[in-house]
Amino acid sequence: MNIYNYLLDVINKKGAAYLLLIDPDKMPVEKSEKFAGICASAGVDAFLIGGSLMLSGNLDESIEAIKKHSNIPVIIFPGSVSQVSPAADALLYISLISGRNADQIIGKHIMAAPSIKKFGIEPISTGYMLIESGKVTTAEYMSGSKPIPRHKPEIAAATALAAQYMGMKLVYLEAGSGADNPVPNEMIKLVSSQCEIPVIVGGGIRDSNTASEKVKCGAKIIVTGNFFEDDDNWERIKEFAEAIHNK
Ligand code: 1GP
Questions:
Q1: Which of 8, 53, 76, 85 has most Cβ atoms within 10 angstroms of its Cβ?
Q2: Is 224 in the pocket of ligand 1 (CB under 6 A)?
Q3: Which pTM was predicted?
Q4: How many domains does the chain have?
Q5: How far is the CA of 100 from the centre of ligand 1 (A)?
Q6: Tell me, what CATH number does 169's domain have?
Q7: pLDDT one digit per residue (tens) for the chain, 247 residues
């Protein structure tokens, strides 16, 4: 089964999928190994891996370490064209559809396509939308694009529908890592009622109630990153997974 179908299967069986984001710059390899084992036994469905910069981290080494200590899929969430690794199971092939910068909608993709083919990685076409969340986030700053205003769910819904009509397989509502405020419930409700492709929600989710609330509003995949970079919180991974798996 390919990874996209695996995600659909998880959604179908558990109600929603829980993905944990690992940024190799923020989690050294030795810590990722331990983390991977804990996540696997806590019910996490897949890892996302990637980062905005990749200064100290090494993508290949991190993926290999995670895979050695767990058997859940590792999906690259690329912060740049160089973040393609043969060790990964799949890659979110993200187009920044909330922006109007052609390079982030198609340009970078052309640069990355030959390596994706060469390594045989499964690309999962994803419409990626930045949503205003309070202060300027890294994703917003690095992409140099304006997020969709948080009180304009209809813009997000029309954008998601366009992504679906263009053949994209997932739509990602991103408040940004460490966001002050997660994606608003009203926006998740409208987007998921309008489009048929699974809606991913991430950014600023720091407790299981919020994660569960987003699923009740229609999110089919929840992503958390920041909160579990602190190992004091690791004992709560299971609580998040159970809150998200509402079926
Ligand atoms: C993935 O950027 C998010 O969508 C992760 O956000 O780090 O705030 O959980 P947090």
A1: 76
A2: yes
A3: 0.97
A4: 1
A5: 22
A6: 3.20.20.390
A7: 899 999 999 999 999 999 999 999 999 999 999 999 999 999 999 999 998 887 778 899 999 999 999 999 999 999 989 899 999 999 999 999 999 999 999 999 999 999 999 999 999 999 999 999 999 998 889 899 999 999 999 999 999 999 999 999 999 999 999 999 999 999 999 999 999 999 999 999 999 999 999 999 999 999 999 999 999 999 999 999 999 999 8
